What does this fold into?
Amino acid sequence: MVTSNDLPPMPDWTTGRPRPPKAPRLESGSGLTTPTGDPRGRPPAPPTGLGTRLEWTQPASFTMKSIPFTIAVLFGAFFTITDGGFGWIHNWFAWFLYVVVVGLLLLIGRRMWVAAGASWLQYGKATLDTYNLVSIEWKAAGASRVLDLVDVHGVRVRAVPVRELQENQALWDLVYNGILHSAASGKCDVSDRATMFLKIPRGLGHS
It folds into this structure.
């Protein structure tokens, strides 16, 4: 039986050392790395008593600022073509729809916060204990691959895009080591698809 003792140790909560080995990933990623300095905006605070935030990703500032302009161009082109002119400018519904779409995209962008410490994953405002997961499921959501995760404390995150976890290799290394330790504990229900796609060694946590 392969146990947690056979796996790389949990890094120190403060220093992040020793760092886990490079984790396998299905998504090629974008080579994204954790920015230097403090995160932008008002991201959720690290969980109390569980060490510092070691790695994180969030939407690029340029991307967030360009959303209203990009949507305005697309809306203008669409309504001009369908309306046969610029009469739509005086249509209150077109502007109402524009505000709703931009608002939703900005709201979704604000939620796209992913961070990891030595023993935890923060997705949006939820924080998971990665070394004490009780359920790991791999699912398909349209063209995206997502994970549903539940920890021993009852914290659940649904439909976490695998791409968002794996695009920052250092962040994924931290999360993946916790996943392996959870699987090795024998107390985590790991779906067959999760075992296959996450390349979790068969028999980990089982005699």
About this structure: Confidence is low (pLDDT under 50) at residues 60-65. Strands lie at 55-57, 114-116, 120-123, 126-129, 133-141, 144-151, 156-161, 189-190. The chain has five helices and eight strands.
